[in-house]
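Dear colleagues,

As part of the handover before I leave the project, I'm documenting each prediction I ran so the next person doesn't have to rerun anything. This entry is a single chain, and its sequence is reproduced below.
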Amino acid sequence: MAEVLVLVEHAEGNLKSITAELITAARALGEPSAVVVGAPGTAAPLTDALKAAGAAKIYAAESDTADQFLVTPKVGVLVALTESASPAAVLVASTAEGREVAGRLAAEAGLGVLWDVVGIKEGGVAVHSVFGGAYTVEATAGDTPIIALRPGAVEAEPVAGAGEVVSAEVPAPAENATKIISRQPAAKSARPELTEAKVVVSGGRGVGSKENFSVVEDLADALGGAVGASRAAVDSGFYEGQFQIGQTGKTVAPQLYIALGISGAIQHRAGMQTSKTIVVVNKDEEAPIFEIADLGIVGDLFKVTPQLTDAVKARKG
C-alpha cells in the first residue's frame, strides 16, 4: 500500500487536533506517514500520540535551522520525500500556513493542489464545499495530489499504527528564504484556541456593542469554550479580528456551535456550518441561520443567554 504523507501540526510538544483528522483522512488513500519538521528533539514527545492516531511511519525531519525560517524548511522536506517515497498524496491542514506550504510544494514538485477539502474518497477523490456551502463538488488532481483539508471537516478515528520512526533530512534553506529574527509569545488565554475548541459561542451584530460581548464570553466560559464573532461584529468594532469566523475569517467545526445575534449570511455560514450541533438565538425568526440550526430560539439574546449561562453553571455545580 502506498504511503500518504501527512504534515504534522504541533505546538509546545503537543499535537493539534487537525493532525489526527489528517491521519484519519489519509487512510482512504493509503498508509499514513506523519512528517514532523522542527528543531532537534521535536519528534520524540509527539511519537506516542502519532502512533495512537494511526501513523504507520513517522518521518523525523529535525535540524537547528528548521524553526528559524518561515515555511521553506517544511516545503523542502516534503519535496524530498515526494521524490524518495513516491506517495499516493500529501495532506496538509487548510490553514494559512498549510495553504502556503501546499502552494510552494506544488510549484516546486510540479504537483496538483486540492484546496479546502472537506472529505476524501478512495481513488484520491476530494470533496469540496463551495459557494459558501451551497454546493458540494468532487475533484481529482493527478497521481500525487496535495490535499489541504479543512480543520474539523473529518472526525478523527484513532487506530493504532506501527509508528516506525525514520530520520529525514532538512535541506539547507535558500539564500533568499525568509528568516525569523525574533519571536513574541502570543498572549495566553484560559479559553481554548478557536479552531481547536469543542465548543464555540459566537456573537454577531445583534450583540450591539463591545461591552455587550461579555454576554457571549460568560456563556463561553461556563461551557469551557472559545469565543467567536461574525464579520459584522468585527467590522463594527465589537470584537477583535483574530476571532472572526467565516469565509474571510477562520473555519471552525466544533461539537457545539452557539450563534448569538448572528443573521447567518452565507459568508458566516461557510465558516461554521460543518459544526456537529448548531444552536441559534435570534429575535428575527426569518434569519437565514435558522435554516441550518439544530435548535433555534426566537427571542432576545440578552434575556435568553444569561438564563442559559446560569443553567449551565447550576448543572456543573
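The chain has a mean pLDDT of 92. Helices lie at 17-26, 47-53, 72-85, 96-109, 214-223, 231-235, 266-269, 301-316.

All the best with the project,
I.
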